[in-house]
Amino acid sequence: MSTETLQIVPAAVEVHDVHKWYGSHRVLDGVDLTVRAGEVTVILGPSGSGKSTLLRVVNHLEKPEIGYVSVNGELIGVRKQGDHLKELSERAILAQRSNIGFVFQNFNLFPHLTVLENVAAAPVATGKLDRDEAHKLARELLDRVGLADKETAYPRQLSGGQQQRVAIARALALRPGVILFDEPTSALDPELVGEVLAVIKDLAKSGTTLVIVTHEIGFAREIADRVVFIDGGKIVEQGPPSEVLDKPRHERTRDFLSKVL
Amino acid sequence: MSEPPGAAVSLTEAPPSATDAPSKPLAAQRVLPLRRPGRWIATAVVLVLAAQFVHGLVTNPFYQWDRFGYWFLRPTILDGLLVTLEVTAYSAVLGLLGGILLALARLSKSPVLRAVSWIYIWTFRSIPLIVILLFLYNFSALYQTLSVGVPFGPAFFTFDESRLATDIVVAVVGLSLNQAAYAAEAVRGGILSVDQGQHEAAAALGLPKGYQFRKVVFPQALRSITPNYVNQLIDLVKATSLVFYVSLLDLFGAAQTMGATYPGDIVPLLLVVTVWYLILTTVVSVVQFYVERYFARGATRTLPPTPLQKLRTAVSDLRDRVRREAAV
Questions:
Q1: Helix, strand, coil proportions of chain B in percent (round to 5)?
Q2: In CA terms, which of A128, A188, B58, B166 is 20 to 30 Å from B44?
Q3: Where is the ABC transporter domain (chain A) (predicted)?
């Protein structure tokens, strides 16, 4: 926002022919996806379609068996070795994740740390900022998500909507080029959904690259540059919301939308 | 309404047949608590039995309380107490450190580390502590020197085992080996109790591996490790009495030796030992309460009250009740 500390350089994401199995069950079946820098992409799909797995492949919480993901051209979790892709060390993967923010459905805040410590932990632990700088940044971020007065609270003393806003501030603290949201409002009471969506909307306006898995179709229509519909581990169709949501070309998309709308 | 009389229940009006109908609206009627005579009788019986027991304890000449007073703070006993404290402290710390390493090994992805850890825990939980201690005591006869160097290769340092293995070292090593096996399971249980989402969040933020364990997982695990480990710690305090058999004079050993010299004082000496162990356990329990309270930060919305806070609430509750009763 006003201060330089909050400047974020949006990154482009490319998912190339990703396949992923859980045992004999194929979760992702050759997914290709290009997300341009600064674009907001919403992923829709029925439960078990592989949309969360796709999101988790992007920051390498799940390893694809075939295919790769790159962020700003940098391969994630692997490197090229001749004709092959070779797994990176855990340390290298952890370092790459600082450019990829992730917001969980269940927030996953650290319950034994205060709100301020939750937000400031990652920049300190990864050596990007010293403690004072990190606390200053954390306060700015908490102010941005409207929780400046909660810095000394513990996560369990907050409502679900407040917790999720802290989780977003925590993801922002590393100034990632892309932020991934895994059903950020699914665990919330209906009246708390709005406050979280407002924060995400604010991020979308500021030009950060966002990839959002959600069931909020109205929200998708409002902020998405592109909607991706996925089913059975494959992308069925994608395009601007005016096409995919209003004039879906595929039977499965129509069927899904008729159930959730 | 055309229902037969008596079938409908009115919530707003008292039934007309009732003669003791409340004169005031129900909301203003005071509810008398249920009297529980059974509870009073049980309380009285227990109090009588307890009084009888205490009376016997005080008046029975068998206990020789004057001799208890004589022995309680004798230097021999206090020296023994010091040995007990020393052995307990070293073994508790080394046992916990060993337990953390063993737990991490058991949770690691390497099958060799997992197997080694499992076998260690299995072995040391199987062998009685006294056997381990006696084994170590005779160890210097089995291996006369200990060397640090390349495995199967040249040695850099060589120790004379009989000089290294003093009584206290034997005791601490034996208790630590045993303690580590049990602590490993307490630590492993604690680590497993931390939600998978915490590991994922830490990984997604790119926190370095060591930081993830030290700052995210372990502090949360400690909440469930503490009660289990303190349980073992109390066992350990008492298990130190076995070091007497490797000729170390701990609290129990000191009393035992004195008892051999003054056979008439055996009972008061055992009482001295009992009271000291009670004091040690009490101290551990009090420390446990505050440690648990510290680790409960964030896990509960409000911290459990300290005994002082509880007392204050009880007093003010009682005052409120008396005031209420007086007002009626």
A1: 75, 5, 25
A2: B58
A3: 13-257
* Phi then psi dihedrals of residue A12, to 5 deg: -95, 145
Q: How far apart are CA A58 and CA A162, in angstroms?
A: 26
Enter the tokens of residue A67: 């295919």
For an interface test with B, the pick among A53, A108, A174 (most B C-beta atoms closer than 10 Å) comes out as A108
Q: What is the pLDDT along chain B (328 residues), one digit of tens a residue?
A: 444 554 445 455 555 554 555 566 666 677 888 889 999 999 999 999 999 999 998 888 888 899 999 999 999 999 999 999 999 999 999 999 999 999 999 999 999 999 999 999 999 999 999 999 998 888 766 666 666 667 776 666 666 655 556 788 889 999 999 999 999 999 999 999 999 999 999 999 999 999 999 999 999 999 899 999 999 999 999 999 999 888 889 999 999 999 999 999 999 999 999 999 999 999 999 999 999 888 888 777 777 788 888 889 999 999 988 888 787 6
- Nearest CB to B298; choose among A61, A111, A125: A111
DSSP character string of B190-246: HHHTS-HHHHHHHHHTT--HHHIIIIIIHHHHHHHHHHHHHHHHHHHHHHGGGGGGG
Main-chain phi, psi angles of A42, to 5 degrees: -110, 130
This complex has an ipTM of 0.91
B→A interface, C-beta within 8 Å: 195, 197-198, 200-209, 211, 215-216, 219-220, 295, 297-301
Q: Which two tokens stand for residue A78?
A: 């692997």
Print the SS3 string covering chain A. CCCHHHCCCCCCEEEEEEEEEECCEEEEEEEEEEECCCCEEEEECCCCCCHHHHHHHHCCCCCCCEEEEEECCEECCEEEECCEEEECCHHHHHHHHHHEEEECCCCCCCCCCCHHHHHHHHHHHCCCCCHHHHHHHHHHHHHHCCCHHHCCCCHHHCCHHHHHHHHHHHHHCCCCCEEEEECCCCCCCHHHHHHHHHHHHHHHHCCCEEEEECCCHHHHHHHCCEEEEEECCEEEEEECHHHHCCCCCCHHHHHHHHHHC
Cβ separation B205–A90 shorter than 8 A? no
In angstroms, what separates the C-alpha of B202 from chain A's closest C-alpha? 9
